[in-house]
Design goal:
Strand content: 5-15%
Order of helices and strands: EHEHEHEHEHHEEH
Structural class: alpha/beta
Number of domains: 1
CATH topology: Rossmann fold
Oligomer: single chain
Number of helices: 7
Radius of gyration: 19 Å
Largest sheet: 5 strands, parallel
Helix content: 25-40%
Distance between the termini: 25 Å
CATH architecture: 3-Layer(aba) Sandwich
């Protein structure tokens, strides 16, 4: 049975099978997403993705053993700090925050955690954390990516010619519109491109040869730092629903395998 962690009483929590149940921890962020999308874009997605995941899991296992932890509203957003409204933990602060959550859950006997990463900037910290929690507490910390942005059905939502769609672009803006269209102001949209990397064949802001990019690397046509990738103007709620549904569906098989993953009695 999938339930919200915070809804259980102490007595109910005591009866939960800690070795069997997965604690899903959605990781959001509070950072700029261009002129059109809210600062809480990643937090909104972190709060909504578990609902889509639950619906997809229900088709496979009506009694899937999972507790959904409250979504984390702030993450590691160093790259966006020069844009108004962005809030970030320092890397060591964020690591220790998540470590302490993991340690608390381990203290109560939980063995399987699944960090649902809804902001890519959080990933490096979670990757380190996953190994440390297993070493220190025998807790298995799995990592899930919330956006199936490479899936053909998701790629098909991007408007023709919008080749740089990325952070704060058409896809993410569509996801917010599917959640709450009143929060998106498409009339103030501006597109962004990684002008710092123009003309390069190998060195890009992501890929096999890359450097940790900063929001200022993404600029408008007139050279103004905008901090987003792509043109959000083609965003729609329908596209957002396709992205959310596809992303959730792509995680189901992995979660089923996490459910069945053998936990060593020695850990």
């Amino acid at each position: 049975m999938i339930r919200k962690y915070q809804d259980l009483t102490k007595l109910e929590m005591e009866s939960v099978d800690k070795k069997k149940n997965i604690v899903l921890i959605p990781l959001g962020a509070l950072e700029q997403h261009g002129n059109q999308a809210p600062l809480g874009t990643d937090f909104l997605i972190a709060g909504t993705m578990p609902e889509y995941i639950e619906r997809e899991l229900y088709k496979k296992d009506k009694d899937f053993p999972m507790l959904i932890f409250p979504p984390m509203p702030v993450g590691l957003s160093t790259e966006h700090m020069n844009f108004c409204g962005s809030v970030s933990f320092r890397p060591d602060t964020y690591y220790h925050l998540l470590y302490d959550i993991g340690a608390s859950l381990a203290h109560h006997g939980f063995k399987k955690l699944a960090f649902l990463v809804c902001h890519g900037g959080n990933t490096p910290i979670v990757q380190v954390l996953s190994r440390e929690l297993r070493r220190d507490f025998g807790v298995y910390a799995f990592i899930l990516s919330s956006g199936a942005f490479d899936h053909p059905d998701v790629k098909a939502t991007v408007s023709p010619g919008n080749i740089w769609d990325f952070h704060g672009g058409e896809m993410e803006t569509s996801m917010v519109m599917a959640i709450d269209p009143s929060l998106v102001k498409l009339e103030t949209s501006e597109a962004g491109e990684p002008t710092a990397f123009e003309g390069n064949k190998s060195l890009m802001p992501y890929g096999k040869v890359s450097i940790s990019w900063m929001g200022e690397d993404w600029k408008t046509k007139d050279g103004t730092p905008i901090g987003i990738g792509g043109d959000p103007r083609g965003a729609t709620p329908d596209k957002g629903r396709i992205i959310l549904e596809t992303s959730a569906r792509e995680l189901v098989q992995g979660l089923l395998e996490i459910r069945d993953f053998n936990i060593s009695d020695s850990e």
